[in-house]
Amino acid sequence: MDTPTEKIVSDNQKTWNLVCDLFADASALPDWGPFGIGADLDLIPEIKGKTFLEIGCGSGRSIKYLMQEDAERVYGLDLSPKQIEEASRYNRQEIEDGKVVLIQSQMENKIDIEPVDFVISVYAIGWTVAPEKVFSNIYSYLKPGGVFIWSWDHSIFTDIEYKDGGYYIEHSYHEEKPVTLIDWKKRGTTAHITYRKTSTWFRLLRDAGFNIIGYHEPAPKNLNRGHDDPEKYYSIQKAKKMPCSFIFVCQK
Description:
Structural class: alpha/beta
CATH class: Alpha Beta
Distance between the termini: 37 Å
Strand content: 25-35%
Number of helices: 7
Order of helices and strands: HEHEHHEEHEEEEEHEHE
CATH topology: Rossmann fold
Low-confidence stretches: none
CATH architecture: 3-Layer(aba) Sandwich
Radius of gyration: 18 Å
Mean pLDDT: 92
Largest sheet: 7 strands, mixed
Number of strands: 11
Number of domains: 1
């Protein structure tokens, strides 16, 4: 029996409130994912004087980076009140100066902001329960010609697991069903996520009206971050064999 959407969102919000401290220093701009992927791609051609919205702003590290690069204004959206609290603490001066505005909401809900030059998201979009709504919202937030850049776990990476000294395909790439993670991160909480095929993401973006102007599957850059246990989900051994992340660059 399918889990109701409302319960999925509620469970995920509670989960991120409980695990947010574990991700305070997780991937953030200029990185687009684990192992420093994408930092050398120069995906945002100009930050100074531009306006941004970050979907899934987490602890606010990417927002701080954009501010340090002289962005005009940055909006941050996150489902978790605890994440918003941490992002507020980390960007307190910029908020007081009116340069940063944080919004606590699920990404599927439409928010009222000025049109922005860029919408970005580092490892958050994949949590959505309704990607059609999210992409439609993002399209509406952008100025004409605006750019949407986002990263997520590569669809192949999620199907591969380490066992008996090697990597094996443990899940069907073609099966796009929701997955429930019990006691995620050993915090006694439940998380829900749906892994989708790469072709599905392409279709959803195009259906929303986006022109896909870039698609990247970067190799890992930082090879000595302590992720050397092959049994861990994010292990450098696994990331060397297959892309751990993809990055879409889309234009309105």
